[in-house]
Amino acid sequence: MQLLAARSRTERELDRALERAGYLPAERDSAVARIRELGYISDRETARTRARSRVDQGDAPRLAARRLEAQGIEEGEARAAAAAPSVRWIRPNRP
Q: How far is 8 from 81, CA to CA, in rounded Å?
């Protein structure tokens, strides 16, 4: 639970953190499944939050989606999060 307290993580990030901590694959799978079942982790919500943050920092939605995919979010979920109405991108003015 300490891994989730510091910041939201994707399932893949949590699995990798547990792997680094020395847990076996079956233990990691079980832990991630249980944490998801309890609602403590949601790739969809993490994707929305991170997409909003990336776009607020100036990333175009497509770039934000690619970054989410690199963090373990499925392609469709990443694209949906980056295209969500709550994510507003203002194209920078070009000289």
A: 15
Residues 6+ apart with CB under 8 A from 13: 71, 72
Does 47 map to a domain?
yes
Entry pTM = 0.73
Q: For residue range 19-42, what is the model confidence (pLDDT) as tens digits?
A: 999 999 999 999 999 999 998 888
DSSP letter assigned to residue 74: -
Question: Taking Cα atoms as reference points, which of 44, 29, 42 lies closest to residue 76?
Answer: 44
48 and 78 housed in the same domain: yes
Per the structure, the complete domain to which residue 47 belongs is given by: 43-83
**Number of domains present in the structure of the chain:** 2
